[in-house]
Predict the structure.
Amino acid sequence: MERDEPRRPAGLLGHSEAMRGVLSLLDRIRRTEVPVLLQGESGTGKERVARAIHAQSPRGSGPFVSVHCAAFAESLLAAELFGHVRGAFTGAVEDRPGLFDAAHGGTLFLDEVADMSERMQALLLRALQDGEIRRVGGREVLTVDVRIVSATHKNLREAVAAGHFREDLFYRLNVIQVDLPPLRQRVEDFPLLVEEILDAISRETGKPPLEVAPSALERLARYPWPGTIRELENEIRRAATFSNGSIGAEDLTGTIREHRPDGTILSDMKGTTLREAVEQLERVLILEALDATHGNKTAAAKRLGLSWPGLQKKMRRYGML
């Protein structure tokens, strides 16, 4: 008898061993309502997975509400999550419910939860322990019923050990941990992923899906994709714009076309300008640093002797963000 395929939630593709493990775990928890912690590099599809967890859970008919914790200052995040009463702060002209209220009976997705301040961690812990919240500036205690799915690109256990994240909150959030693999660990999934992106482009344009030449697919699969799914989608959309009926290796950017797993460059750079040669070398060194630091961009910047903004600027210039 053939081994059963794990259930495949909508929008999640993959036959690779890494994705089979994720899908198998999602299948095992689909009828539960326990908190789930998603860990993975930026761009690995954490919100997509969170939506899938919600959709196949007993709360699937309820609301799914998400918030990016790193996008708010501490005081604003408290008001966003718990709501506020009129006069609580400048600009609070009326009572306003928060995202806990909005997610009542459903799922609240806390993205980049590791970036919460110590005070916010304490407030969140109290809400999770008691199932009660108090709006900013208010005295009334409100009961809420939400399932928490949280996510971070950081190693939360290391953050706890370093004293940057509360251990008691970590155990509240991390009842089930799902580690999402980066694209470089999902080589077998590239045909499916590329097909999904091309199908999306076809639906948007009303044109038949483009085909991808084996030579192009091979080059896509051997590139480490530091920008993960987002970078892959940008590359396919760019190639589709310039292709004529079929995406070939020549339609890919030089970064992808010339990359080898050992970090060397296929071309001998003959006929290139000094600036072009330097750019090719910078791309390779950035890829090597990101690979050596497992996608940790802060550590990669330090390895390259750059500031984080400096590395970010170069990655944006080369289409890696």
